[in-house]
Amino acid sequence: MRTYDCDVVVVGAGPGGSMAARYCAEGGLKTILLEKKAEVGAPLRCAEGVSKKWLEEVGIEPEPMWIRGDMKGAIIKSPQGTTFQLDESKAGSEVGYVLERHLFDKALARDAAKAGAQIMMRTSCTGIIREEGKIVGVKARSMGEEIEIRAKCVVAADGFESQVGRWAGIDTTLKLNDIDSCIQYRMVNIDCVPDYCEFVIGSVAPGGYIWIFPKGEGVANVGIGVMGRLCKGNGDAKYYLDKFIAEDPRLSKGQILEIMGGFVSTCPGLDCAVDDNIILVGDAARIIDPITGGGICHACRTGMYAGKVLTECAKTGDFSKQALMPYEKMWRDRMEDKLFRNWMAKEKLASLDDETIDELIKMIKDSDIGEVNVYNLLKVVKEKFPKVVEGFEDLI
User: Fold this and answer.
1) Verdict on whether the full-model pTM lies above 0.70
2) Domains, the chain, ranges and CATH?
3) Which end of the chain is more exposed for a tag (fewer CB within 10 A), N or C?
């Protein structure tokens, strides 16, 4: 059996994996990045929307090739049609780009390769290698060949399914409340607002929301997320999305070019995303915004943090759980309070009826909010509808 040796093996070439590989390689670590698919970034499993503010934080320079739309703002709607439109002057960090995600992912993998990481395509991780109870690498199947990759540490960046985390003994199970069933269409011949992302909340998408992310020239990603606990059948997400499209004259005559579906975790992260000789990043660590389901930013941040911590660990040769704990501190200091607050808000929002949601949007529309983000919206809600934020008032 062919064997490869490296300092770090990263499983998954999504944003989290590529960022981890890049920062490990930049730190001088011999890094191997595994990708099970034949193409980085495809097939698409994402709504393709990102905010702008964090890109500089993780060292990503915006590139025209992967920016499909530069949004001016956002529109939030209730099922009754009450609309709250905010432009960039008020939306702040919530405004961003609509991506060509496959090109974005390829750009991040390219940067990892430029830094010195070795990328192995069509290479599926099939198990963890342990010796005397210690993780020493992974088993994989590369282009049909069984191989072993020996490493001092494994980075699990294998997304929602996170088999690597489970194989390593890390509990990544989720409650139905913390899973959204999602489906999205790439549609053409539709008449949406070209420079604004739209979000529709309420009974049209139980426990979640419908989104319309424009990509120019009558093209948009139109999708839905429905809370797992509120799904009554296997096809609920598709049923609600098809119903919404059929009833919206801007969309009803559109055509579908692409369908993607899957699940998104909406919990505030794992209790611990490290163990001896392994780190989980991004979706694999359940580090994702519970209220929006957005995970690209969190994956990139956690990938960067993992790379920086592993670089330090390599200086001492210690990749134990204790040595990896600075990673836990980094992501929790930066994101934990917000993730927990948004998780609580998600839980409350799922319990509201359409009339209350309509009243909330009317109230927000009439409020004087300098910068509209989830935190500032919740501050207004706390003042007017205190019951909605019961249990997490101290985070607002």
Assistant:
1) yes
2) 2-47+102-173+270-343 (3.50.50.60), 175-265 (3.30.9.10), 352-395 (no CATH)
3) N
